[in-house]
Specification:
The complex is a heterotrimer of chains A (92), B (851) and C (264). Chain B has 851 residues and is an all-alpha fold. Chain B has helices spanning 39-44, 48-76, 90-125, 133-153, 179-208, 221-252, 264-299, 306-319, 335-362, 372-395, 397-403, 407-436, 442-465, 481-511, 585-592, 600-616, 624-644, 665-695, 711-735, 739-768, 785-816, 825-850, and strands at 11-12, 210-211, 542-544, 551-553, 650-651, 655-656. Helices cover 63% and strands 2% of the residues of chain B. In chain B, strand 3 and strand 4 (551-553) form a beta hairpin. The chains are: A mainly alpha (92), B mainly alpha (851), C alpha+beta (264).
Chain lengths: 92, 851, 264
């Protein structure tokens, strides 16, 4: 497993990413044109994804577990995404 | 519910596993469990076989319950009725329709199958029990009490009357205001809790407790079917849970999901059918597994194309999650998605063709003995063929348009579902000698089958002929009266057939001939290699498939390797690892004695039952509120009691554990639970996104007051991130054996979590009482869909935080006493949960605060 | 996968629509043609498969005789405690599987052409059709004509495409006229579209096909198909419903606004 130093570094990164997400809002991109809105949307969601992967990988030690554990979680995630995307698409 | 998992005690021992050879039925074999004749045993037992029997018995009770409702309906349908005519009034008829469906689908078929799964799967895979025996007992008691809760709903004015599909918005109090309707929904919530606990348990067991050299692909087909069923259950029921929680909130807290004009009604349909279609296979797969086993035994042939049979099942299990919209072809979904789901629907029908042909070809060159179990399995296959062919009609969208909502659908799915149940009745006869040690009466069994098969077809086939009758009506075209009468007669014949069955089961128990260990020629699975009934710990040694054949390793092999004894957050025992190994076998044996009795699962479920009864009418006041409070206290007390109870479960060392080698049972259980929680939150977030798309993505802002700002969310993000870090530090401290460090870190976690909740409380209070132009009345749960999704989704997350904090609160004094120094496992398991809660927030924060 | 979102323009759609194979016409014609093909083929397949199954089960019934010595390949029977394996016979299995796949897939593809035709009709606009909005409520149906006329009886001309926009003012209903083979979900907040052509004048009944509450069994409406000229006469005399009747399920109940134009 990782050292306390690495855990701390990760904590700092997470902290910074959260701040950046709030700053994007502060910058007013979200009130702007559609293009700007969706660009900001992408940035914010990608940051959340990175944060999630880091927490799962290091704090939850998925990095050191057999891959199969990640697949189990991934399956749940795919199921939820399938539901969300197909349902939302069906009414467009 | 969320915190069940970490409570089970689990002890990992090393290879020095002392398995004694004990003749069946000896007294000290029962490890403190009263004998089977004692009523007390059945409340205490955590043994998988006992629980299997309890499941089977209870499921049969609900079969009778749901069956009587069906007979009431069939009486009502004897002739087309004017309002108020006949046995049942309009609302009573709707209740009967709804309760019949819910009881049969949820409280009968699946639990019936899981009675057999409980009994047989551990035997087939060579496990002494399930991995978490107390959780298994908990699953059963939650199941029983959820069913009783459903029964209570009949006495609260009326039970739910909106059909088993519970379509929105008929399912909200504006249209179904009865308290009993809420109770029925809560009964389903409780049932899903039972299913989730059970899924985690079965998956952990089947993946990590298999006998040596029994690879996953070598599982007997019944066990394979159960394994796939449980995987589907894990994910599908999580989506149902989301739907039910939202519905409960709409009914009790006044959220507005399903009354929302834009998308509310469709949201329910999506959530329900995302669960509902896999549910069809969840119901049917165990029956398929039974058919495969029974066919192999009574044809004396191994199944044709076994590999492909298994592959087909895997394919169906995967695809079952992408066919749900074929239940919605007539809703406002677009043509593209209809086409896609038409394709996936054909896709999923094909593997079934293969399985059916495989079963049929297995007959060839067999030595077929037409025993009762075989007759039922054979009959089931025949019925399934009819159900399958009529299902293809529904796969053609243009035909589906016309069949929708008619008796064609009713007939089709009864042929499939009750067809499946047919095989399960075969299973009852097949395993009866194993479970009871007595042979059933073959003649009566055949009489049962004859009546059953005739009754079944008389009941359901005329429904195809009268297919233009709309579902769930009792005033139909008089031209169909003969068909409906025939169906009613068939229904009563079917009912009579069960009287024969019950008589046979009862009579054979008293006077039946003693059954051999293996009464069936050509049976091959492991349950037939041990006595009937099997002893408490199943095997006369360690089962192993080394050398390609089942044998029992009777003696301790190694015994010197040091076993790390792992206890969970619950158990107070923390003896030194491996003490006594190799020195005094008796001592080791004493220590590793598996526990088999616990009263807590029963108490916990009883308390949960009271809580739900209280909650059902919480808005009515009166006795309901105190009842909910008492129940809640009981739940908390039982959880602590269960956590503190020493309960030993030796995990098998010599076992096949692919693909989860090196992930202990507790950890795997936690991960599997989290996977279902991913779907739960995913469905919540998905609901939010769906409603937002329906509303118009960027229009959403108009539904939110300006006071809803980023800052509180950001602060809470910081707090949760920091608390996650604190849990990591707690684990590091535990690794280093620093008691103080563990306590300090846990206290920090607790403080940060409380800070999170306080901050949230302040924020909510503020939003509740905003007075802006757009929201003069404040922004409350019932204000609009944006407030509903915001409060309910973040509220569900908040509930997870509270559960986490309660666990922390429990762990801190234990840490103080040094329970975790040198043993960081419990902290790690808790951390998995806590970090997951953190991750969820990482998505809720941008979705609900920023975007 | 065949599951690519397909619109009429895609190859799949073109193939399916090719030739005169694809049933078209009224909903009744389309349904009947497809239904009978499915029914005949389905019955045939069912009879063949079930007879085969019964025959084999009978043929290989255990007679109690056990071949004593010459139990070579024929007697490779399952034994207790073996690791499960399968029997041979895979070739036959795949042959039948392939056959069933071909039958099922071609049947569904064939009907897909009709689906495109049926769906296409709802988006087409032509002068030669009438359009009626259907509102379900607990427990009845309200029909709203383009001129604002409301009624609980649906009157339509024969031999004309009638387009329906179906919705609900309370719970989930499903509007269907069984004899005319038209059906659509009535969902609050959503509008679904469908169409039908009635070829013969007469009285029909519309019913609700989704459980919607205590009056579900009786949630019906009369559908009257009139001769075209008669319909014209009737329609020209209708007037928009008075404003105050606009809310509440009671509005439009009874046919106060129509006096003349009764057929027969």
């Amino acid at each position: 497993m990782a050292s306390t130093k690495l855990y701390t570094a990760i904590y700092v990164v997470l902290f910074v990413f959260a701040t950046v997400q709030a700053l994007v809002e502060e910058a007013g991109w979200l009130g702007g044109s559609d293009t700007l809105y969706w660009a900001a949307f992408a940035v914010i969601i990608v940051l959340s994804l990175i944060k999630a992967v880091i927490v799962a990988g290091y704090y939850q030690h998925l990095k050191w577990e057999p891959r199969s554990v990640s697949y189990v979680i991934g399956t749940g995630l795919i199921a939820a995404l399938a539901l969300t995307i197909a349902a939302a698409y069906s009414i467009t | 519910m969320t915190d069940d998992t970490p409570d089970d005690g689990s002890i990992e021992t090393d290879g020095g596993h002392a398995t004694e050879e004990l003749p069946a039925g000896e007294d000290h074999d029962d490890h403190g469990l009263p004998p089977m004749s004692s009523v007390k045993r059945w409340f205490l037992t955590t043994n998988h076989k006992d629980i299997g029997i309890l499941y089977i018995g209870t499921a049969l009770f609900f079969l009778v319950f749901g069956g009587i409702l069906a007979l009431l309906m069939r009486i009502q349908l004897w002739a087309p009725r004017a309002p108020g005519e006949g046995l049942l009034g309009p609302l009573a008829y709707n209740q009967a329709v709804s309760a019949h469906g819910l009881l049969m689908v949820f409280w009968f078929i699946s639990p019936f199958a899981f009675g057999f799964a409980n009994y047989v799967v551990p035997l087939q895979i060579g496990a002494k029990d399930l991995a978490f025996p107390r959780l298994n007992a908990l699953s059963y008691w939650l199941y029983l009490f959820s069913g009783l809760l459903f029964g209570v709903s009949f006495f609260q004015k009326a039970t739910f009357s909106g059909g088993w599909t519970m379509y929105a918005p008929l399912n909200i109090p504006a249209y179904t205001p009865e308290v009993g309707a809420t109770t029925a929904i809560l009964a389903l919530v409780m049932f899903v809790a039972s299913v989730t606990v059970s899924s985690v348990n079965f998956l952990t067991t089947m993946h990590r407790w298999r006998a040596e050299d029994l690879r996953l692909r070598d599982l007997p087909l019944f066990s394979s079917s159960i394994l796939l069923t449980v995987w589907m259950m894990l994910f599908a029921f999580a989506a149902l849970l989301a739907a039910l929680i939202v519905l409960s909130a709409d009914r009790l807290l006044g959220t507005t999901y399903f009354v929302t004009q834009e998308g509310g009604s469709l949201l329910w349909a999506h959530l329900f059918w995302f669960f509902g279609h896999p549910e069809v296979y969840i119901v049917f797969f165990p029956a398929l597994g039974v058919m495969a086993e029974v066919f192999q035994t009574f044809t004396g042939k191994r199944i044709v194309g076994r590999k492909w049979f298994v592959a087909a099942m895997v394919l169906v299990a995967l695809q079952s999650f992408v066919v749900w919209m074929h239940h919605m072809f007539l809703t406002a979904i677009n043509l593209q998605i209809k086409t896609l789901f038409m394709a996936t629907t054909i896709g999923i029908s094909l593997p079934f063709d293969l399985m059916v042909f495989a079963l049929i070809y297995t007959l060839i060159k067999g030595r077929i003995r037409f025993t009762t179990p075989f007759l039922f399995s054979f009959g089931a296959l025949l019925l399934f063929i009819i159900g399958g062919i009529t299902g293809v009609f529904l796969g053609a969208v243009v035909l589906d348009y016309e069949f929708r909502g008619t008796y064609w659908v009713v007939a089709h799915f009864h042929y499939v579902m009750v067809g499946g149940a047919t095989a399960l009745f075969g299973a009852l006869y097949y395993w009866y000698p194993k479970i009871t040690g007595k042979m059933y009466d073959e003649f009566l069994g055949k009489v049962h089958f004859a009546l059953y098969f005739v009754g079944f077809n008389l009941l359901y086939f005329p429904m195809f002929l009268a297919w233009q009758t709309p579902r769930r009506v009792f005033d139909y075209n008089p031209a169909y009266t003969p068909w409906h009468r025939l169906a009613t007669i068939g229904g009563f014949i079917l009912a009579v057939s069960f009287l024969v069955m019950f008589y046979n089961l009862y009579r054979s128990l008293q006077t039946g001939a003693d059954a051999d260990d293996n009464p069936w020629e050509y049976s091959s699975t492991a349950e037939w290699a041990i006595s009937s009934p099997p002893p408490l710990e199943n095997f006369p040694g360690l089962p192993s498939y080394k050398g390609g054949k089942l044998n029992f390793v009777s003696k301790v092999t190694g015994g010197a390797t040091d076993g790390g004894e792992v206890t969970d957050g619950g158990t107070a025992v923390a003896t030194a690892a491996g003490a006594g190994h190799g020195t005094a076998a008796a001592t080791a044996h004493e220590e590793e004695h598996a526990s088999h009795a616990s009263f807590w699962p029963f108490l916990l479920s009883l308390a949960g039952f009271l809580t739900f009864v209280g909650v059902s009418g919480i808005n009515k006041g009166g006795l309901y509120t105190p009842l909910a409070a008492v129940g809640g206290l009981g739940v908390a007390g039982s959880l602590v009691g269960m956590a503190r109870e020493p309960f030993t479960v030796p995990s098998p060392e010599l076992a096949e554990k692919w693909p989860f080698d090196g992930v202990e049972d507790m950890k795997l259980g936690m991960w599997i639970f989290l996977a279902s929680d991913v779907v739960l939150f995913g469905a919540f977030i998905g609901s939010y996104l769906f409603m937002r798309v329906a509303e118009g993505w960027r229009n959403w802002h108009h539904l939110i007051p300006a006071d809803h700002v980023v800052m509180p969310g950001l602060i809470n993000t910081y707090l949760l991130l920091t608390s996650s870090f604190a849990v990591v530090l707690a684990m590091v401290a535990a690794e280093r054996g620093s008691n103080k460090g563990v306590v300090a870190s846990l206290v920090a976690t607790l403080a940060l979590g409380i800070g999170f909740l306080i901050n949230k409380g302040i924020e909510w209070q503020h939003l509740f009482h905003v007075h802006s132009e757009a929201f003069p009345e404040g922004w409350e749960l019932s204000t609009n869909i944006a407030s509903s999704t915001f409060y309910l989704t973040t509220g569900l997350h908040g509930a997870h935080v509270i559960v986490g904090l309660l666990i922390t609160l429990y762990m801190i004094p234990r840490a103080w006493r040094g329970a975790y120094s040198g043993n960081d496992k419990p902290i790690e398991y808790f951390g998995l949960y806590w970090h997951f809660v953190d991750i969820v927030w990482l998505f809720l924060f941008p979705l609900f605060y920023i975007l | 996968m065949t599951g690519e979102p397909a619109v009429p323009e895609t190859a799949l759609g073109l193939v399916a629509q090719a030739g005169g194979l694809v049933p078209r016409g009224t909903r009744v014609e389309v349904f009947n043609r497809i239904y009978w093909v499915f029914l005949i083929l389905g019955t045939l397949v069912g009879i063949v498969v079930i007879s085969y199954m019964l025959w084999k089960a009978y043929k290989y019934r255990d007679t109690g005789e056990r071949p004593a010595e010459d139990e070579d390949e024929d007697d490779d029977r399952p034994t207790l405690g073996e690791l499960p394996t399968g029997s041979g016979g895979g070739k036959k299995l795949f042959l039948s599987f392939a056959l069933s796949t071909i039958i099922v897939v071609s049947l569904i593809l064939w009907t897909y052409g009709t689906l495109l035709y049926v769906e296409g009709k709802t988006t087409q606009d032509s002068a030669d059709q009438i359009e009626v909005t259907v509102e379900g409520y607990q427990f009845g149906w309200r029909f709203i004509y383009p001129n604002g006329h409301r009624s609980t009886t649906l009157r339509v001309p024969e031999d004309k495409t009638v387009k329906l926009k179906v919705t609900s003012t309370d719970v989930f209903h499903n509007f269907g006229i069984p004899e005319l083979k038209v059906k659509s979900d009535a969902i609050p907040g959503q509008e679904t579209e469908t169409w039908f052509v009635a070829e013969e004048t007469g009285n029909y009944t519309a019913k609700c096909y989704e459980l919607c509450g205590s009056g579900h069994s009786y949630m019906q409406a009369d559908v009257i198909v009139m001769e075209q000229s008669e319909y014209q006469d009737w329609y020209s005399q209708t007037t928009p419903a008075p404003e105050e009747n606009d809310s509440g399920p009671e509005s439009g109940e009874g046919e106060s606004t129509e006096t003349g134009g009764e057929s027969e």
